[in-house]
Amino acid sequence: MLKVGLELTLEDKDTGKRYRCKIADIKEDKIYIDYPIDLETNRTVFLLIGQGLLVDFVSDGQIPYRFSSKVTGRELGNIPMLILSAPEPEDVRKIQRRQYVRVDAALDIALTFPESNLKTTAVTKDISSGGCAVYLPRNIRPGEHETGKALLVLPLKEGYQYLQLLFSVVRLFEKGGKTGASLQFKDTSAKERQYILRFCFEQQLLLRKKGLSG
């Protein structure tokens, strides 16, 4: 489940701050990671030995998992690394769907509905790693359960990411005189899910910083 190259999200148990990193190596009960990047500042951080962490990752089967860990050491070399304690298999737990991070966000998205022969650009209402809600132009009415393709623009601190995603229409809805659609992403890669999760975390941090987070 854990493998070299897998992207992890670390949460400091004391401060709640979040960081991203990748697994560089795994040896017995040790996970070697590159130096983490603070999701809020986009800068490298230096974690203290003994620091407790919650570690999140998404498996190849698109299932989010979490385990508890701590920094146990450092390795200096051509590529400096931190060493985390590896969990026992029974200590790696699935994150329930209600824990999926969903944030309000107005993102540019281009949609193609092959079955209806429709194409349009739209703006998202909200997004999570599992899907998004979009507001549609008045002349665009796809069918429920229709599948399609999306080009989503994600503005991350490190720069823009353009994701090509498959989706299915879960339902259509009306809100404030606007018609929208709830879309479920299909067959997303671990890297695509991590980009979306990273965007959601960055948005949460931004809202918290502005004092608007509930």
Short key terms for the protein model shown above:
mainly beta; 214 residues; Thrombin, subunit H; 6-stranded antiparallel barrel; elongated; Pnp Oxidase, Chain A; 2 domains; 6-stranded antiparallel β-barrel; 1 helix
* Shape, per Cα inertia axes: elongated
CATH superfamily of the largest domain: predicted glycosyltransferase like domains
Number of strands: 15
User: At the third CATH level, what is the topology name of the largest domain?
Assistant: Thrombin, subunit H
Proportion in β-strands: over 45%
Uncertain regions spanning at least 5 consecutive residues: none
The average pLDDT is 88
* Biggest β-sheet: strands ordered side by side in the sheet: 1-2-3-7-6-5
Q: Based on the structure given, which CATH architecture of the largest domain is correct?
A: Beta Barrel
How many helices? The count is 1
Helix fraction?
A: under 10%
- How widely separated are the two ends? 34 Å
Taking the sheet with the most strands, its summary is:
6 strands, antiparallel, barrel
Query: CATH first level of the largest domain: which class?
Result: Mainly Beta
Estimated structural class: mainly beta
Gyration radius, in Å: 19 Å
Order of helices and strands: EEEEEEEEEEEEEEEH
Strand and helix layout:
Elements: E1 7-12, E2 18-27, E3 30-34, E4 37-38, E5 52-58, E6 64-75, E7 81-85, E8 93-94, E9 102-104, E10 108-113, E11 118-128, E12 131-136, E13 147-156, E14 159-175, E15 178-186, H1 190-210
Antiparallel strand pairs: 1-2, 1-5, 2-3, 2-4, 3-7, 5-6, 6-7, 6-8, 9-11, 10-11, 10-13, 11-12, 12-15, 13-14, 14-15
